[in-house]
Specification:
Layout (H helix, E strand, L loop, with lengths): L37 H10 L14 E3 L6 H9 L9 E4 L6 H13 L8 E6 L2 H12 L4 E4 L12 E7 L6 H7 E12 L5 H8 L4 H4 L4 H10 L3 E14 L2 H10 L13 H14 L2 E13 L2
Parallel strand pairs: 2-3, 2-5, 3-4, 5-6
Antiparallel strand pairs: 1-7, 6-8, 7-8
Helix pairs in contact: 1-9, 2-3
């Protein structure tokens, strides 16, 4: 059987999972078992559009706990500036569809009516469908998007007061330090080690320890400090994820492409069938994400 649209070949842009301003919180009751067949659920999961970082489709079908710091709203607070230092220029690295930055800009305006947004609002994004979506959202808010793959930032030295990012594929610390003005900050939520690895190992088998700990926050702390940045605060949390049907798993793996990098329904049909049967029996598949919050300053 053909399951329709294959996942697009795209660069690893932003990152992540069914959470953030548009994501569902835990439902009040478990998802009701679907009357759809295994093949119908697979086709449904494949058919859902994957552009942007709106995870609202998962409502009632998958959940992820949210970090206690509330990143999008905390970002809004930073956009308003800190005592003695206004934010005149902000960069969002790997913005996805621009949803988080747009939400934060709107929240900042609601929190301080009449306050001025940063004069310069810029985002980078590497996947063309996301560039289009983000450009539309940010244009309405006086910002713009630069199409740029993960890697060196296409900006001059010392341009930005604030750099933000939600779930970057990789934090390029020397580039972040380079584009920040002295006294500027990097405020970001990163994906941590062993994130969703119950799901990863179901499809790929046991992973090497080096891979499991590749995103460890202490390793990233050392890299940031080596780039000349000061760590103001670093917090980490591990959060529960639940998948209530196989369509949610298929959509998640199609959207968050670095989880199982070569995922297609056809390639992983046996693993999908086993997981479907497990969910049908147990009612849920449980995994765990890890997130850490970086609050960093350039001296």
């Amino acid at each position: 059987m053909s399951y329709g649209r294959r996942r697009s070949d795209r660069s690893s842009s932003s990152s992540s999972s069914p959470s953030s301003p548009s994501s569902p919180s835990s439902p009040s009751s478990p998802f009701s078992p679907s009357s759809l067949s295994f093949d119908e659920l697979l086709a449904e999961g494949v058919a859902v559009p994957t552009e942007g970082w709106d995870f609202s489709w998962f409502a009632g079908r998958a959940t992820e706990g949210r970090p206690s710091w509330g990143y999008a709203r905390a970002m809004a607070g930073r956009l308003g500036g800190q005592p003695g230092r206004a934010v005149g220029a902000v960069l969002d690295v790997q913005t996805g569809g621009g949803e988080v930055l747009s939400f934060a800009l709107d929240e900042a305006g609601r929190a301080a009516p009449g306050s001025r947004r940063p004069a310069l609002v810029v985002a980078t994004e590497g996947w063309a469908p996301n560039v289009v979506k983000a450009a539309g959202l940010l244009r309405e808010r006086g910002g713009f998007v630069v199409a740029s793959a993960d890697g060196p930032l296409p900006f001059a030295d010392g341009v930005f007061d604030l750099v933000v990012s939600r779930h970057p594929v990789k934090a390029h610390w020397r580039e972040i330090a380079r584009v920040l003005r002295p006294g500027g900050g990097y405020f970001a939520q990163h994906v941590g080690p062993r994130s969703a690895y119950e799901l990863v190992e179901h499809f790929l088998g046991p992973q090497p320890e080096e891979q499991l700990n590749a995103r460890h926050p202490e390793r990233e702390r050392r890299d940031a400090e080596a780039a000349g940045l000061e760590i103001v605060d670093l917090r980490a949390e591990r959060l529960r994820m639940e998948f209530y049907d196989i369509a949610a798993v298929v959509h998640f793996l199609s959207k968050v492409i670095w989880t199982v990098p070569d995922f297609t329904v056809e390639a992983y049909l046996p693993q999908l069938r086993r997981l479907h049967e497990r969910i049908e029996t147990e009612g849920v598949f449980v995994a765990h994400s890890s997130r850490h919050l970086f609050d960093v300053r350039k001296p």
